[in-house]
C-alpha cells in the first residue's frame, strides 16, 4: 500500500512540473505567436501606393495606419484583386499582424462597395 502511495505522489509531481514548464515556455497569451491576428474596419482616407501604406478612419473616428506586402490578400466580394485597385473612400475590413516595432501589416483586406456581392453565394446568374 505504501508503494502505491509513493508512485501516485511521483506521478502527481511530474504532471505539475510539466504543466508549469508549459506555461513558462510561451503559452502566455500576451506573448504567444499562435494568437489570431487582430481586426480593423473603416474607410480608406489616405493611400500611398509607393510606400504600400494606407490609413483608415474607423466608425468611432480614430485614424489608423497599416502597410501591406506582396503576400497581402485583397478581396472585392468573392474576387481577388491587387493593391492598385484600392481607392480612397472604400469601406474595408482588415486582418493584420503587429510587428515588434508596432508596425501593423495587413494579412487580408476585404473591400465593400455598393452593388458588389460580398461572397460567391451572393452572385446571381444572368
Question: Looking at CATH, which topology of the domain at 39-121 would you report?
Answer: OB fold (Dihydrolipoamide Acetyltransferase, E2P)
* Count of DSSP strands: 7
Going by helix content, strand content and strand pairing, the class is alpha+beta
Coarse shape: elongated
CATH class descriptor of the domain at 39-121: Mainly Beta
Put simply, the count of helices is: 1
* N-C termini distance: 80 Å
Order of helices and strands: HEEEEEEE
* Main beta sheet strand tally, sense and closure: 7 strands, mixed
- Relative strand content: 25-35%
Radius of gyration: 24 Å
**Largest sheet: spatial strand order:** 3-2-1-6-7-4-5
Low-confidence stretches: 22-27
Description:
The protein has 126 residues and is an alpha+beta fold. The protein has a domain at 39-121: Beta Barrel (OB fold (Dihydrolipoamide Acetyltransferase, E2P)), CATH 2.40.50.320. The protein has one helix spanning 2-24; strands at 39-48, 53-57, 63-67, 73-76, 79-81, 91-98, 104-112. Strands 3-2-1-6-7-4-5 form a 7-stranded mixed β-sheet, with no helix packed on it. The protein is elongated, with a radius of gyration of 24 Å. Mean pLDDT is 79; it is low at 22-27.
Main features:
single chain; alpha+beta; OB fold (Dihydrolipoamide Acetyltransferase, E2P); 1 helix
Amino acid at each position: 500500500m505504501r508503494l502505491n502511495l509513493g508512485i501516485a505522489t511521483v506521478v502527481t509531481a511530474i504532471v505539475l512540473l510539466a504543466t508549469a514548464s508549459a506555461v513558462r515556455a510561451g503559452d502566455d497569451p500576451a506573448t504567444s505567436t499562435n494568437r489570431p491576428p487582430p481586426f480593423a474596419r473603416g474607410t480608406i482616407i489616405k493611400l500611398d501606393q509607393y510606400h504600400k501604406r494606407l490609413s483608415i478612419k474607423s466608425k468611432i473616428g480614430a485614424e489608423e495606419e497599416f502597410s501591406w506586402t506582396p503576400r497581402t490578400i485583397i478581396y472585392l466580394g468573392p474576387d481577388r484583386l491587387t493593391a492598385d485597385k484600392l481607392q480612397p473612400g472604400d469601406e474595408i475590413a482588415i486582418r493584420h499582424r503587429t510587428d515588434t516595432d508596432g508596425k501593423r501589416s495587413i494579412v487580408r483586406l476585404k473591400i465593400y462597395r455598393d452593388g458588389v456581392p460580398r461572397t460567391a453565394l451572393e452572385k446571381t446568374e444572368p
